[in-house]
Amino acid sequence: MAITQHKISSGFDAHSTAEEVLTGIDLTGKTVLITGGYSGLGLEATRALTRAGAHVIVPARRPAVAQQALHGLPRTEVWELDLADLAGIRAFSNQFLETAKTLDIIINNAGVMAHPYQLIGSGWEAHLAVNHLGHFALVNLLYPALAATGARVVSVASSGHFLSDIRWNDPHFRRGYDHWLAYGQSKTANALFAVHLNALGAGSGLRAFAVHPGSILTPLQRRIPREEQLAQGWLTRDGRPAEGFKTPAQGAATAVWAATSPLLEEYGGAYCQDGDIADPAATDDMLIGGVKPWAIDPDSAAKLWTLSSELTKVDAFS
Ligand SMILES: NC(=O)c1ccc[n+]([C@@H]2O[C@H](COP(=O)([O-])OP(=O)(O)OC[C@H]3O[C@@H](n4cnc5c(N)ncnc54)[C@H](OP(=O)(O)O)[C@@H]3O)[C@@H](O)[C@H]2O)c1
C-alpha cells in the first residue's frame, strides 16, 4: 500500500504543544496506553491526554518512580512492564486482556539511546530489543483489545533513523558496535513497524503512524557526557537547550496529534513531525528532519515484520 508522505497543512508546526494539538478533541471515555508515559515526552503526553479526558495506562519498568511522577494526575494507572523482558510482556498482555478492557490508542514511546553494548534475552541488541521488538510483541499481543475499537497505534521514532537502515545481515551487531548506529537502526524499525502494522490492521480500521518528536532535552540523553552534548551542539555553555530544540510540551505534540487527529484518517502508515505529516528528507540534517526512503519502504516493512515475529514468536496476523 502506497503511503502519502508529504505535509497536509494541518495548521500545526514545530512550536505547537501537546495541549494545543488536542484543542477541541474530547477523549472522554477513551483509553490510551503509553509506554514510558511518566518521563520526558511521555509524561507530557500523559498530562495532555488526561486533560482532554482520556484514561491513560502507563506501563513502567520503575512503577514506584512512575507513581511519583503521575501523582495527582487524574485517570492514570501504572502497570509494571519491562520491554526488555519478553515473558513479562506476555504476562502483562494476558493480564490486560483478562480485564476485557479495550484500547483506543497505544503510543509506543519508551526508548533507550546510546546504550552500552548489551545482548538481551536470546541475543537481541538492546536498542532493537527495547525500542522495537518489545513494542512489536506488546502491540501484537494486545491486538485483540485494539481491534475492537478501530484504534490508533503511534510509534515514537526519531530523525535518528537517518543514521541507519536495518542491518539485515547483522541486526544484533555481532561486529562493529556503535551506539548511534544501533539507536538509528531501532528508530528505522519504529517507522517500518508503523508502515506494516497499518497495512495489516487496515481491515479492522486500525491506523498506525510513526513520529519524530523533534530534539528535546530529557532524561534520554542521560548516557551522553555533558562535553559530548556541548560538542554535538545540543546544549549552550550555560546548560540551556540549543536553538531549534523544543520544550517537552512541544516534543509531545506530534505523537498525540497522530494519535487523535481526524485529518489523518486517510494517511495511515505515514511518518509525522512538527504536528503534520513529514516531507521526504531533503538533507542529512537531523534537526531539519523529514523521512528517509528506507524508513517507509513497504517491502522492508514486511521483511522486518517477518524477522520480528520470528524473533519474538508473536504475530497477531499469522
Ligand atoms: N528527547 C529527544 O530529543 C528525542 C528525539 C527523538 C526521538 N525521541 C524518542 O522519544 C521517546 C521518549 O524519549 P524521551 O526523550 O521522553 O526520554 P526519557 O525521558 O528517557 O523516556 C524514555 C522512557 O522509556 C522508558 N524505558 C526505557 N527502557 C525501558 C524498558 N526496558 N522497559 C520499559 N520502559 C523503558 C524509560 O523508563 P526509565 O525512566 O525507567 O528509564 C522512560 O520512561 C523515545 O522513544 C526516544 O527515542 C526523543
Explain this structure.
By secondary structure, the protein is α/β, with parallel strands linked by helices. The chain has a single domain, classed as Rossmann fold, CATH 3.40.50. The chain is built from ten helices and ten strands. The strands form two sheets. An eight-stranded mixed beta sheet has the order 3-2-1-4-7-8-9-10, with helices on both faces. Strands 5-6 form a two-stranded antiparallel sheet. Helix 3 links the parallel strand 2 and strand 3. Helix 5 packs parallel to helix 6, helix 5 crosses helix 10 and helix 6 crosses helix 10. The longest helix has 23 residues. It is globular. The model has no long low-confidence stretch (mean pLDDT 96). Bound molecules: NADP nicotinamide-adenine-dinucleotide phosphate. NADP nicotinamide-adenine-dinucleotide phosphate (NAP) binds next to helix 2. NADP nicotinamide-adenine-dinucleotide phosphate binds next to helix 2.
Compact summary:
This protein has 318 residues and is of the alpha/beta class. The chain has helices at residues 18-21, 40-51, 63-69, 86-98, 126-147, 179-201, 226-231, 248-251, 253-260, 298-312, and strands at 31-34, 55-60, 76-80, 105-108, 119-120, 124-125, 152-156, 207-212, 271-273, 276-277. α6 crosses α10.
Features:
318 residues, binds NADP nicotinamide-adenine-dinucleotide phosphate, single chain, Rossmann fold, alpha/beta, globular, two-stranded antiparallel sheet, 10 strands, 8-stranded mixed sheet
